[in-house]
Amino acid sequence: MAASIEFECVHYRLSSGVAVLEDVSFTVERGEVLVLVGRSGVGKTTVLRLINRLLLPSAGTVRVEGRPTTEWDPIALRRRIGYVLQEVGLFPHMTIGRNIAVVPHLEGWPSDRIRARCAELLELVGLDPVSYEGRYPHELSGGQRQRVGFARALAADPPVVLMDEPFGALDPLTRSEMHREFRRIQERVRKTVVMVTHDMGEAFALATRLGVLAEGRLVALDTPEAIACAGDPRIRMFLEALPPVPVVSRVSH
Amino acid sequence: MRRCRPYRSYPVYLIDFWISHRAEMLGALAQHVVLTLVATATAIAIGVPLGIVAARRPRLGAALLAFANIVQTVPSLAMFGFLVAVPLIGGVGARSALIVLFLYALLPVMRNTVAGIHGIERAAREAGVAMGMTARQLLLQVELPLAMPTIVAGVRVAAVVGVGAATIAAAIGAGGLGDYIFRGLSMTDPTVILAGAVPAALLALAVDATLGWLERGLTPGAARQRRVTFRAVAATAIAIALIVTASFALSGRWGTRVIIGSKNFTEQVILGELLAQTIERATNLRVDRRLNLGGTFICEEALRAGAIDAYVEYTGTALTAIFHQPVVPDRA
Fold it and tell me: ipTM value of the model?
């Protein structure tokens, strides 16, 4: 399988000189779900922002589909990458349908194709197109908004989806329901997903591979099973923060 | 013995006055609406883009807002008087008045545009950028629509303040409802003052209510977009109808040759009118009347600046107030 995203000795420093990421290297294969865990402020979001060129690395190279992000036109790159945020970031002045249609609209799709795609995506994320298309974001619950956010990220069928603590603001029951939904949808669409979270349980529930970030470095990157047995204290720390380690329940691929 | 008018019957006098002056009243109202509307529209056309720039570049924005703040602190009467003497843009009449009213309207529009853009949720902007919107697309599809209720709130303040400030524009011959207020003041007749002040206040309230309604309609989540579009269209249609009506009412005032001024008391208005009619009878020139200008200083400045061609002055006033000569008393 070809690498979809590649980090090669990536450093990222703030303009103040503070190092956020140091010497981070990893690859994400096509169709894989890579979940990065780490404490707040450890540079997880920076990793995502380096992928869609909201940031450029201070040193090293980030490649998306084989091309360094510095060589991508940022607009073209971002339209090939779906983005899901914790706050969802739905546009409050647009209907659900219009929100989902943002990227197809920017790409100039004909309106009947946008309409069909929108209905298809609402079906996919488990919302009835007829009753939800015309509603506004404030009329939806947190979980429903997050489903719409996911549909919006998938709208133009991007090969890559980035998710920044997508389920962080949801209550535990809704969150585990969304985990099931995510696995069901990913089973169908097979996107390359990079997700960051500080919830180790979520990481175990969703990851194909799991990376642990600590002090700006990637200290581990392996399958959830291997991570669960790791002896490194920087990894054990996260495992011990979990409630009694859950049985790893994943849909096998 | 002199009897004062009983207070309770003011409304009766007022209504009598309106009925007997109805054609003139409607003209003054139309002038007033046009002054406010044109000044506010210009402030939107210039203030919103400036606000967008100011929101993007904090240092430039601070300078722009500081300038607009300073303008706002100048008393409007002083600014009207000052502008009479300024070449090119100044003079008496509607044009100078529009410039002053525009400068007053600029600050609220600009400040609210900046506040509206800064007030947008970080996540919405970030989502737009991350989805590959260009700066222009982000502005038109996300930032401006979300900032719109705040911008409209600024326009609302600008328009209401503008209705008030436009009454003072009568001092430099711009017409409008302020004519009655100044006339009433110089006649010490409260009925005439109220004849201008009451419609001006009602106009301000009507503008406030209309724009408030538009503002609520534009707030995301408060209403469906279709209804908002309808409101915007309705408001625009009303505005256009007002402009058309008013420009018909005003069309007689523009494109004239000789401009006759006068100060703002009855004798002066009569003298100015006599002068105007004499010229009209004796020549083929068209005469524009800028009567009721707010005092000697404004008449003098208007004359010097070429904004009026003639007004009647008194030898004593001319000697002391204009030529600043000492008064030579008679030897007793």
Answer: 0.83
